C-alpha cells in the first residue's frame, strides 16, 4: 500500500458513480477505448483465449472490453468505489470479470508470471512510483507475454494541451485531474521498462482534434502516448 496516493484515490472515488455515463467526465475514456483496444489486439495477436490483467482498472471500461474480446480477465484497483461500480456494471452487462482490490505489486508477489497480457492505461501518472508499477507488471506477465502502458509526456506542449486545454478550456476532464510534474517522458518509461526486464516493442501517440472532436493514433508522442512491451 506504500505506492499509493490517497488524494488520487479520493479524486476518482468521488466521481465513481459517473464512470459509465458516456457524457460525463469520463467521456474521453469511452471515446478512446475502441482505439486503444484495437491497438492492443493488433499487437498481441488477439485477446481471445488469453489471460489478461488490467492494472488500475477504475470503473472497468477497458476491462469489460477486454473480457468481451474473449479473454479471461482480472481487473485490479485500490480505489474502492470505482471498483464497486465496475463489479455492479459487470453484473448488469453479464460480462464476467474478476475484480480485486489489490495493488499491482501485491498481485505480482502472489501470482507471478500468470498473465499472457498486462494492461496499465492512464494510471502511471497517478502513483508516487511509476517504476514500481512497471516492475510489477513485468513480474505479472508470462515470458513471451505482452505489457501495454499509456500515459502523458512531460513537456510544455503536454501541459498546454492536457491540462490548460483539456481541463480548463475544453472541459474534457475535471480541473485537477492531472499534475504536470507526474507526467512521464517516453525515455523515462522506456528506461523503467528495461530495468524491469521488458523490451519496448512499439510506441504511438494518441491525438485529439478539438474541431472534429475525434481521437486518433499517430506518430507524435508529444502529449498522450501508448507503449507496447514484451517479456523475453
Automatic annotation (TrEMBL):
Gene Ontology biological process terms in this record: methylation
Name recorded for this polypeptide: Ubiquinone biosynthesis O-methyltransferase
Molecular function as annotated in GO: 2-polyprenyl-6-hydroxyphenol methylase activity; 3-demethylubiquinol 3-O-methyltransferase activity; polyprenyldihydroxybenzoate methyltransferase activity
Keyword Transferase tagged: yes
Function: O-methyltransferase that catalyzes the 2 O-methylation steps in the ubiquinone biosynthetic pathway.
Class of this enzyme: transferase
Pfam families: Methyltransf_11 (PF08241)
Lineage of the organism: Bacteria, Pseudomonadati, Pseudomonadota, Betaproteobacteria, Burkholderiales
Amino acid at each position: 500500500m506504500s505506492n499509493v496516493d490517497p488524494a488520487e484515490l479520493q479524486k476518482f472515488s468521488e466521481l465513481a458513480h459517473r464512470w459509465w455515463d458516456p457524457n460525463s467526465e469520463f467521456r474521453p475514456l469511452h471515446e478512446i477505448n475502441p482505439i486503444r483496444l484495437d491497438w492492443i489486439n493488433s499487437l498481441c495477436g488477439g485477446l481471445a483465449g488469453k489471460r489478461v490483467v488490467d492494472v488500475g482498472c477504475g470503473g472497468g471500461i477497458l476491462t469489460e472490453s477486454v473480457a468481451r474480446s474473449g479473454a479471461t480477465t482480472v481487473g485490479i484497483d485500490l480505489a474502492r468505489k470505482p471498483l464497486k461500480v465496475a463489479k455492479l456494471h459487470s453484473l448488469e452487462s453479464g460480462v464476467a470479470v474478476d475484480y480485486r482490490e489489490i495493488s499491482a505489486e501485491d498481485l505480482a508477489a502472489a501470482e507471478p508470471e500468470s498473465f499472457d497480457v498486462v494492461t496499465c492505461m492512464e494510471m502511471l501518472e497517478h502513483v508516487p512510483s511509476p517504476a514500481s508499477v512497471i516492475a510489477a507488471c513485468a513480474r505479472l506477465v508470462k515470458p513471451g507475454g505482452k505489457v501495454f502502458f499509456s500515459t502523458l509526456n512531460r513537456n510544455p506542449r503536454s501541459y498546454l494541451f492536457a491540462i490548460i486545454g483539456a481541463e480548463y478550456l475544453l472541459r474534457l476532464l475535471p480541473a485537477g485531474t492531472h499534475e504536470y510534474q507526474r507526467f512521464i517522458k517516453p525515455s523515462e518509461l522506456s528506461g523503467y521498462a528495461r530495468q524491469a526486464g521488458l523490451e519496448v516493442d512499439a510506441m504511438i501517440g494518441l491525438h485529439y482534434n478539438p474541431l472534429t472532436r475525434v481521437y486518433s493514433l499517430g506518430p507524435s508522442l508529444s502529449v498522450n502516448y501508448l507503449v507496447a512491451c514484451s517479456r523475453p
